[in-house]
Amino acid sequence: MIDDSKLGYRKYVLEEFEFESGYVLRDVEVEYTTRGTPKYDSEGNITNAIIYCHRFNGNCLSIEDLHQLIGPESELSDFNFFYISITSLGYQESCSPSTTNLKFDFPEYSIRDRVNFKRKFLDEVFNMTRVLGILGVGIGGYEAYTWACEYPDELEFLIIGSSSFKTDGYRYITSKALDNMIYVSDAYWSTVYSEDLSKMMFSINSLIYSQYFPKRAFQKFTRDELDIFMDKFIDEGSSEDIYDFKYRNNALLDYDVEDKLSNIKAKTLIVGSSEEVYYSPEFDLWPLKDKIENVEIRLFEAENFVYKYDFSMFVTLFREFLEEFRK
User: What's domain 5-165+258-325's superfamily in CATH?
Assistant: First the structure.
């Protein structure tokens, strides 16, 4: 194990990881971080673990976005949960096309592979085959849905924000367009990472930013504010490797757990915005009422909904939902 706790994260090396395709990678790095203190039952099993699944352009340290809900200074500190945040398969801080230097020879992976990557890590590091709950945001919600559908007996609750249970319609077109942009580039198939690829990532991040806020929130900003926010967003993604991005995007194209939602046994809380651009209440939230048995759906007005960093409006909701899971 690599201990980088002073930097806020640690790394663990899996001896091997097998993909659904049967491809096996060895010496697989996993980056992770924890918050809180674990509690144990009489058999030594951790009973208060919540797994955080980060957004598309995040990593394990994105859990800090939830600073109002976790940690000793948080408004839910008295709930004493043990949070585990793992950088997903395919991200450069964990095992990815760029960190393995396999580039376009990296094995294709699915959202279920990403879930199994985390499950294997939890089993090896924490001897954990069950968790108290899973919290997923954005693409992290894809992992959360998949986990609850494929392994329904492994968790007691599920919280998902700004996400969906399948890639279709507008999302499919967007992901397919991004894939086409990369695929037709001669620079992508080169053995040398060129400046052209960095320029392409600039264009890709500009397009992704167009889906970043609810529609009404965008309308509130002046052009100068939009430029500032866009520049900051693009700058945050400037170090993104295009091979990592393409594989991550590919995993979204076939994602669809709609027919498995009835498998979910966990108590479920779904949170979204009334005017989300990428995830809409009409197609991604309200249909869940008839698909998941024990589900609560909460929709927040767009003008009050801050996409990240400010979760103060959710504290009361989370406290009420999580009350029964205090150990």
Answer: Alpha/Beta hydrolase fold, catalytic domain (3.40.50.1820)
